[in-house]
Each structure stands twice: as C-alpha cells, then as structure tokens.
Amino acid sequence: MTIKNNNRTQEKKNFFKRKSFYILLGAILGAGTVVSLYLTSVHFSTDESCMICHVHPHVEDSWKMSKHVNNASGTKVHCVDCHLPPKNETWAHYTAKMKLGIKDLWGYIAKDSADYDWDRLSGLETAVTYIPNESCKECHCNLFPTGISDDAVTAHLYYEGNETKLNLQCISCHLDAGHYNPNYKHAKLTVVENILDRDTSLYYKTATAVAEFKNFTEQIPGTPVAFEMIAISGGSFKMGSPEKEPFHKEDESPVHTVTVGSFFMSEIEVTWDMYWSFYAKTMSEGRIPPDDVYANNSRPDVDAISGPTPPFGLPDQGWGGGERPAITMTHYAAETFCQWLSQTTGKKYRLPTEAEWEYAARGGSETPYFFEGNPKSFSNEGFWRKFFDADVEVISQYVVYDNNSKSRTQTPDMVEANPFGLKNMLGNVMEYCADKYDAQYYGKLGDNIANPLNSEGEEWVVRGGNYTSDAADLRCAARDYSRHDAWLKTDPQQPKSIWWYSDIRSIGFRVVCELPEQLKHN
C-alpha cells in the first residue's frame, strides 16, 4: 500500500514538472513571439518601409518639404505618427496597422499604380480616412502656440468647445501639414492673387449692349471677365414627370402645362472667375451684422452693395478656380451676386424660376433627359448593378455626375450642350432657383399656368443634380431643396455666415437675364 502511494506521489511530481516545463516553454515561446512581432512591427514602421508600398510619385518629396519635417523645431514626424492611432491606444494602433499593411501590400502586388487617380487620392475626402484625429492631438497638445493668428485662435477655440458636435478632423483645415502642396492656399489669398492683381488694361470698360433677341457675350465692366448668355424663346411645356417614369418621385407630380416667357440664360454655371470678381468688388472685411447687410442691400437706391465676408476655409476645395463652377455660397449670396451684376451691367439679372429652369433643361424634349436613354440603364441603383455596370457612354457626353466626375466639379468643356445650347444643366453642381420649395406645389397650381413662382416655404428649390449624383437624380423633372441648417453645421462663426456654407460642396447657380424693355414689346 505504501509503495503504491509512493508511486502515485512520484507520478504527480513528474506531472507537475512536465506541466511546469510546458508552461515555461509556452511562456518563453509566447514572449519570443510577442517580441518578434514587436520587432517586426518596429522594422515595418520605419519611413523607409512605408515608402516600399507607397508608390505615389510625390509622396516622399512632399512629406520632406512639409511642416512635419521641414520646420524650425528640428522635429521630424514619421509616417506612422500621422497615419496610425497613438501607440498608447495599443489595440487600435496594431489593428489599424495590420489592416493598412494588408491593404497596402495587396495594392502593391496586385494593382498598377499608373491606374490610380492621384489627384483624387490626394484630396481631403481620402485624407480624412487615413489620418486619425487622435494622432494629431497626441502631438499638438497646445492648439495656441506663439505666433498663431487671430483667425486660428477663433477656429481652435470653437473646435475645442464643439469637437464632438462638429465631428470635424484636424486634417479638414490642415491638409498640407503632412504633405506639402504649393497650390494649397487660403481662399482669401486665392482671391487676391487671381483677381486683384490682374492687369487692369484687360478690364472691360462697358457692358454689352443688347438690341436683339439673340445670344450675346456679357462683359462685366471693371473686370476681365465675360460669359455667354443664351436666348431662350418662351413657350409651353409639360412640367414634372409621369408616375411611370423610372425613379419618379411624388413631388414631381402631377404633370401640368406651364407657359414661360422668353429670357436669356447663362450658357454655364457661374464660374469662380465671375464670382471672385463679384467678391473683389463688394467684399466686406469686417464682421458686418447680417441685419445691417440685409438693410443695406434691400434699399432701392443702394450704390455700394455689401458683399461676402472672407470665407472660412477653402470654398473651391483646392480643385481650382477659373471656369469651374463657383460653389458653397448661400442662396442669399447668389441673389446678391445677381443684384451686383444687374447694377454693374445695367440689365436685370436674377436666379431662374423653377419653371424656367426645367423648360431650359429639357431643351424642347419631353423625355426624362434631353438626350435619348432610359434612366434605369444609366443608374447605378438596382439588383442587376451588382453584376453589370451601368451604361455611361451617352450620358457622359452631356453630364458631369458620379460615374465620370472624379469626385469633384469639372470645367464646362468636359460636356456637350443641350438643344438650347446650355451646358451642365443636369449635373456638375446643383443650381439654386428663385422659388421656395413645396413638395405639394404642383398639385396646388392646376393646369395651364403662366410663369409660376412659389414664395412660400422655408427652403429653396435646387435643381440639376451634381458631381456625386446617380443618374436617377439627374432627370429633367427631379427636384431637390436646400438644407440651410445642415449645410452650416460646422461653421465656427457666431452668428453663422450668411454668405458661405461650411458643409456642402455641390451647390452653385446660373443666372437669367430678363429681356430689356425695348425687346419685350417687339
């Protein structure tokens, strides 16, 4: 009995010895694995290792020229400092690193870098997905360093007090901090360089005289800017869409007959060249109270129009100015532009009514678009789009939209005009109308209406879709409306701007010119 007990005791001792050995071996192997993984992680966290997969032709040079490397402090910020969550957030740091590593490696092995749209990938829309805000705040503990401007102090104070509500990232305002971009400038500087410093010998002295009802080139006196106005003969048309039209919405019915008079409409949307000229002539340097602006501009004898205050941020999104459509202005700013243009040229410029807009967009057609094609064939929506791509050949000739825009506005030379000679009526940017929006407005009108204009409602009608729109929302009858509060959500100013929207990039407008009195009676 004693021998058996001794044997059992010995077996237990041997068992615990073996167990202890395996535990120790496992701990050593585990620790070794962790150390190995850590050392591997450190090795592949160097700037040199990042450059192996990141084949953007300018990424290394632009990084070395940025404030994060080329600065007075002598501090060098590495790739992982910006592109990964801070190391004190261990799980987030290493999971993000693993995901990015796998994605980058797959792209390096399986994709051709020549096919990448580098302009789009360098833009803010992509940057915000690769720069954790926590990493910015990890380094920039002091948002008010010596030498900071008053505007920056105001912005950072507002950011600190409203960070959660804004859901705004540091990179939204500091896109060039990590990768130098010589073209990244504040909007106010862009205005000064593009407008105020031009050769005044190129400025027009007088506006274009209009003696006939035909297309003409308007010249804006005191500026080097001219633009085309198209003569649109009045007539009757069926406004709205029938219920059987693909993607029809309730606010597009009932279809009703509308008659509009003749008018001139700008061939293209108001461009940055046009809008910056207006800004340069009317800009308000100080923070003029909105009520004072409204009071001044509403006077019938006003001789000095109060124009926009400097924009907070970069209204053109860094995409460029020139003939690209001006964007991010409020409806009031668009109306004030028309007021200034009227005063400057001696004509009556205004926003188009919703009826005029649809009449002009249709170009005499009664189909969903002014060109041939079924909306279902052009749209990305629907079950079959999981297997077959939408038809883009026809629609891309006439419209800047989601499938061909490269996620930004484009110049008018990218598309062909509609039958009336108007470009980008159905895409590029949404366009303000003079009407207030009412989803039931068509049902209140009845049939055979002349020159309707709705003045009741909270928001304004916008028409035409934009560069992010699906073809379903580009139909001639498709309606939309402004969202004033949502489009100003992240504006840090108090009171909020009456000139610039902070949260919409796809809104613009085009202008209508009424017939001079002598032509109305011809």
Which descriptors would you attach to this protein?
five-stranded antiparallel β-sheet; 522 residues; single chain; 2 domains; globular
Count of distinct strands: 12
| CATH second-level architecture of the largest domain | Alpha-Beta Complex
Indicate the radius of gyration in whole angstroms.
30 Å
- What strand order characterises the main sheet? 1-2-5-12-6
Supply the number of structural domains: 2
The CATH superfamily of the largest domain is identified as paralog of FGE (formylglycine-generating enzyme)
For the record, the CATH class of the largest domain is Alpha Beta
Overall mean confidence score, pLDDT: 83
Gap from first CA to last CA: 130 Å
* Sheet of most strands: 5 strands, antiparallel
Structural class: alpha+beta
Please report the number of helical segments: 18
Strand content: 5-15%
Determine the CATH topology of the largest domain.
paralog of FGE (formylglycine-generating enzyme)
3D architecture notes:
With 522 residues, the chain is α+β, with helices and mostly antiparallel strands. It contains 18 helices and 12 strands. It has 2 domains: 47-184, no CATH class; 193-520, paralog of FGE (formylglycine-generating enzyme), CATH 3.90.1580. A 5-stranded antiparallel β-sheet has the order 1-2-5-12-6. It has a 4-stranded mixed β-sheet with strand order 10-9-7-11. β1 and β2 form a beta hairpin. The protein is globular.
List the helices and strands and how they pair.
Elements: H1 2-43, H2 47-53, H3 59-64, H4 79-83, H5 90-110, H6 118-121, H7 124-127, H8 133-139, H9 150-166, H10 187-196, E1 216-219, E2 226-232, E3 235-239, E4 256-260, E5 263-266, H11 272-282, H12 290-297, H13 331-345, E6 349-350, H14 354-362, H15 375-378, E7 430-436, H16 441-445, E8 449-450, E9 460-463, E10 479-481, H17 484-487, E11 507-508, E12 512-513, H18 517-520
Helix pairs in contact: 10-11
